[in-house]
Design brief:
By secondary structure, the chain is an alpha+beta fold. 37% of the residues lie in helices and 21% in strands. It contains 14 helices and 16 strands. It has an 8-stranded mixed sheet with strand order 1-5-6-11-10-9-7-8. It is elongated. The chain binds histidyl-adenosine monophosphate.
Length: 411
């Protein structure tokens, strides 16, 4: 029979990789909790128009990368390529703005983009992300960036931080016009993608990696020349707060991001250790998006990090709890062994009741293969064997067994 393989760009995550996945996500969740973010669990499927109106019709994501399908009711749907659009939709649809104050939400889960798979780039990948709604203070920008830095620090991941400001909506529009004029004169030099971007998304030409395009934008007008006083001041404040928090950064004037909704602050955390796909986390402000999607005028900002990219950079996992395996020496002791395993688990011990049948010796071997640090032999008495030293101690009942495991630091 021919074997069915997983779909290109999709992955099975198991064993140590699954542990890494959990470690990354749990670390982020812990930090989100400390910053008082609440979780939001979002659908995987949204109407295509949501992403067209937020991420942007001319972006690579919408043009080339979305998994789009029609459901049986004829709806035009997409597997979500990112989380922000859904959070904004949910924020508006559920009237979360009416709660007063401001909202801080986080999410985690799978995203789908039909990109060319390579190390650190998959067609199904996972993000952890957070969004803040209803705050225009640059304090929020600084805190958000600091929070991402804290997640990376806790994972022991080094990544440099690049920041930029795109200015408010109006200055960005003025700049885009000027840039378009400039690029029009150099259209011949641009790659096919950028020729297409030129009309409707010229900002993206700025961060194209193709040599000809890099040359063409060499003397392009700078966004910084078009910023309003307010945008400039806001950016200064963000930098001042980051300095105060001890967060290092470099300003990269050509950082424009691949999604259309950004205004003012944008940022990326980049690692040089994982090849071309080095951006591990990215985000920024999107003060116009809530309104654009039909909600009240609400400033907002957020970030997302790629879990798989972070996993590539995690070297050490926290030590897992030692495994204690329980083996009844004969079938007659199965019932007692069930009780012993239950009692150990109730004390928080990672316990394996060896389920396989066979000789005592073969079950011992199984316990070894499963990585047991200790084995408890169950008969009329209980015996605890240390699998590393081979030493064996006898105890009368579960209570004294638990006492002994406490002494050994298992509990
Ligand atoms: P993004 O830059 O498109 O932003 O994606 C954020 C992160 O997701 C990237 O930096 C990368 O680590 C990871 N990522 C993206 N595509 C892939 C892929 N194909 N394979 C593996 N990892 C990937 C956003 O998605 C915005 N929603 C971020 C945001 C939130 N901005 C404001 N709020």
């Amino acid at each position: 029979m021919s074997q069915i393989k997983k779909v290109r760009g999709f992955q099975d995550i198991y064993g140590r990789e699954a542990e890494k996945y959990r470690f990354v996500v749990d670390t982020a969740r812990d930090i989100f909790g400390r910053y008082n973010f609440q979780e939001i669990i979002l659908p995987f499927v949204e109407e295509v128009s949501l992403f067209e109106r937020s991420v942007g019709e001319e972006t690579d994501i919408v043009q080339k990368e979305m998994y789009v399908f029609e459901d049986r009711g004829g709806r035009k749907l997409a597997l979500r390529p990112e989380g922000t659009a859904s959070v904004v939709r949910a924020y508006i649809e559920n009237g979360l703005y009416a709660k007063g104050g401001y909202q801080k939400l986080f999410y985690e889960g799978a995203m789908f983009r039909y990109e060319r798979p390579q190390a650190g780039r998959y067609r199904q990948f996972h993000q952890i992300g957070a969004e803040i709604f209803g705050v225009s203070s640059p304090l929020a920008d600084a805190e958000l960036i600091k929070m991402v830095r804290e997640i990376l620090d806790r994972l022991n991941i080094e990544a440099r931080l690049e920041i930029n400001t795109l200015g408010d909506f109006e200055s960005r529009k003025r700049y885009t016009e000027k840039l378009k004029e400039y690029l029009k004169d150099r259209e011949e030099q641009l790659c096919e993608d950028c020729k297409r971007r030129l009309e409707r998304n010229p900002l993206r030409v700025l961060d194209c990696k193709v040599e000809g395009c890099k040359e063409a934008v060499g003397n392009a007008p700078l966004l910084s020349q078009f910023l309003s006083e307010e945008s400039k001041e806001r950016f200064e404040k963000v930098k001042e707060y980051l300095d105060a928090l001890g967060v290092d950064y470099t300003v990269n004037p050509s950082l424009v991001r691949g999604l259309d909704y950004y205004t003012d602050t944008v940022f990326e955390f980049v690692s040089d250790k994982i090849g071309a796909q080095g951006t591990v986390a990215a985000g920024g402000r999107y003060d116009n998006l809530v309104k654009e999607l039909g909600g009240p005028d609400t400033p907002a900002l957020g970030f997302a990090a790629g879990v798989e990219r972070l996993m590539l950079l995690v070297e050490k996992l926290p030590e897992e709890k030692p495994l204690v395996s329980v083996i009844p020496v004969k079938e007659d002791y199965n019932l007692k062994a069930l009780g012993t395993a239950r009692d150990l688990r109730s004390k928080g011990v990672r316990t394996e009741l060896i389920l396989k049948e066979g000789s005592l010796k073969s079950r011992m071997k199984t316990a070894g293969k499963m990585g047991s640090k200790f084995v408890v032999f169950v008969s009329d008495r209980l015996e605890l064997k240390d699998m590393e030293t081979g030493s064996q101690e006898e105890v009368g009942n579960t209570e004294s067994l638990i006492g002994l495991l406490e002494e050994k630091g298992v509990i």
